[in-house]
Amino acid sequence: MRHAYTAFKSLVKLEGNFLTNARRGDIWHTHASLNRMNLSLDDMGVLSRINSFQQVRKQVDLNRVLRNALNKLQNKITEKQAIIQRKKHRQRSKVDLPTVL
What we know:
Blueprint lengths: L1 H14 L5 H28 L11 E2 H11 L1 H7 L18 E2 L1
Antiparallel strand pairs: 1-2
Helix pairs in contact: 1-2
């Protein structure tokens, strides 16, 4: 992929004066497409090295997450006069959110 990218770039530099504007545009379009494909391949390589099974999992208290979010957004909530409602869970008498892993 990188060789094709470099070859198209060199082609335009060396032979660009002999090409019509339309052909030069086609080559630059192909060049840009190759660049995007190359970036996508790099991203896929990085993603393939991520292994979520090796990550340490820890419990997260969703009530704490909600409180932190509400605290950070308090000014906007007040400004917009928003009302935040929490519904009771069917199997619980409280409004508490679960702790998840």
